[in-house]
Amino acid sequence: MSDTRETLLEVRDLQVTFGSRRHPFPAVDGVSFDIYKGETFGLVGESGSGKTTIGRAIIRVNPVSGGTVRYQGEIISGKVSREVDRKVIQEIQMIFQDPMASLNERAKVDYIVSEGLTATAGHLSEGERKARVEQALSDVGLLPEFASRFPHEFSGGQRQRIGIARALIMQPKFIIADEPISALDVSIRAQVLNLMAKLQKERGLTYLFIAHDLSVVRFISDRIAVIHKGKLMELAESEQLFAHPLHPYTRSLLSAIPMPDPVWERNKQLLVYDPAQHHYSESNPPLWKELEPGHFVRGSEEELDIYRKML
């Protein structure tokens, strides 16, 4: 199946390190995955696992210390030409996690939404720019007159829609959505998710959807990658991952999903992941292997044999 799909983004052995040379901290360590054109790729893990760091490394906010990121076959990580940098700014956009913090409180919505245009489409007249802003607001279900207001005049859900409009006005092909609904009420979450799905269908968008809530990711994603402490543990199609979770960390995440059935919830067994259960060494290193078509998992040869029997 992967042969027929067009690869939009290719991440290979990605490493992002923070701290000093004497005290380096690897936030992302040897991560590899592909994102196909038109799909929603879910990236799941607990707080501090490196999800947001990967998203910011792709969009060139966080510098990469190793590995490569290719977009449409072109390397976009590290030092790149001005043309490539401009292409990334225009075609890859990010929706940020906190709709309260990601908008400039002192600027009107008109300026916030059109800020990206000033960097890439300086040739637009004032009338064309305003028309683009009104269209972007309309696309996310907001009224054109909202353009003259300030962010503090809006609810959390409306602010997140403004954030989505800011990304859409650039007419991107690829959007990194970094926990776009975690700060919203449950009723508003569904509206934002449905809006993102609708826009994807209409515009052929590709999403990297970053979240810690597996039930939400299952609803919106075609494939899901599970990350723990900067390393990928498992990657599979959504239903495949839920039907056959192989890695103990994936199983522990799935066991923690709250269920609407009180009897089930009372009797469910929580699985706690203990990294000490893996006995890795130089002679017995963890490998990243495809055990069935499209289903990758991290483990030693011995563990991989056990996982194969679970399929």
Provide an overview of this structure:
The chain is of the alpha/beta class and 311 residues long. It has two domains: 2-229, Rossmann fold; 245-311, no CATH class. The protein is built from eleven helices and twelve strands. The chain has helices at residues 51-58, 82-91, 109-120, 126-139, 156-168, 186-203, 214-220, 238-243, 248-255, 262-267, 301-310; strands at 7-19, 24-36, 40-44, 66-71, 74-75, 92-95, 174-178, 206-211, 223-228, 231-237, 287-292, 295-299. The strands form two sheets. Strands 6-7-8-3-9-10-12-11 form an eight-stranded mixed β-sheet, sandwiched between helices. Helix 3 (109-120) runs parallel beside helix 5 and helix 4 packs across helix 5. It starts with 6 loop residues before the first strand and ends with a helix.
Question: How are the elements arranged and paired?
Answer:
Blueprint: E1 7-19, E2 24-36, E3 40-44, H1 51-58, E4 66-71, E5 74-75, H2 82-91, E6 92-95, H3 109-120, H4 126-139, H5 156-168, E7 174-178, H6 186-203, E8 206-211, H7 214-220, E9 223-228, E10 231-237, H8 238-243, H9 248-255, H10 262-267, E11 287-292, E12 295-299, H11 301-310
Parallel strand pairs: 3-8, 3-9, 6-7, 7-8
Antiparallel strand pairs: 1-2, 1-4, 4-5, 9-10, 10-12, 11-12
Based on CA inertia axes, which overall geometry fits?
globular
List the secondary-structure elements in sequence, H or E. Answer: EEEHEEHEHHHEHEHEEHHHEEH
CATH architecture of the largest domain: 3-Layer(aba) Sandwich
Summarize the biggest pleated sheet. 8 strands, mixed
Question: Span from first to last CA?
Answer: 19 Å
Query: Structural class given helices, strands, pairing?
Result: alpha/beta
Taking strands numbered 1, 2, ... along the chain, how are they ordered across the largest sheet?
Answer: 6-7-8-3-9-10-12-11
Mean pLDDT: 91
> How would you name the oligomeric state of the polypeptide chains in this document?
single chain
Give the uncertain stretches in residue-range form. Answer: none
User: How many beta strands in the DSSP annotation?
Assistant: 12
- CATH class wording of the largest domain: Alpha Beta
Radius of gyration: 21 Å
CATH superfamily of the largest domain: P-loop containing nucleotide triphosphate hydrolases
Q: Helical region count?
A: 11
Q: What is the name of the CATH topology of the largest domain?
A: Rossmann fold
Name the helicity range. Answer: 25-40%
Domains, number: 2
Report the sheet-strand fraction: 25-35%
